[in-house]
Amino acid sequence: MAAETPAAGGVHIVLARFKEEVTPERLDHLIRGFGSLVNLVPSMKAFNWGTDNMHQGFTHVFESTFESTEGVKEYIEHPAHVEFANEFLPVLEKTLIIDYKPTIVNNS
Asked: Has residue 43 been placed in a domain?
């Protein structure tokens, strides 16, 4: 039987499809800006991103991990994140944002 254990930390996922007019250079700038938040928001521990296989019309996925669920809240309210979001969100055609506390499943 699998045992479940709450994991430490929190996860913030952003699924995105950018507007057609977003150039590759602008996209690169935005991704670098998103990644730079890990150096500006103390509770943010890691940032990963990749391209999606077009599921549900999304093209990119961004994952940020945090030391705690409270850290996710701090990130959302942090001035550096607010400033970045004001640049990032207007160029999205479609987005889905998910915040969750992970659970570890141990198959023992």
From this structure: yes
- For residues 7, 89, 57, 75, the Cα torsion angle rounded to the nearest 10 degrees is 0
Tell me the per-residue pLDDT of 30-79, one tens digit each, with 9 for 90 and over. Answer: 999 999 999 999 999 999 999 966 678 899 999 999 998 899 999 999 99
Active-site annotation holds for 75:
yes
Catalytic residue among 12, 60, 75, 81: 75
Q: What is the dihedral of CA 44, 45, 49, 55, to 10 degrees?
A: -70
Catalytic residue among 12, 78, 81, 100: 78
Within a domain: 19: no
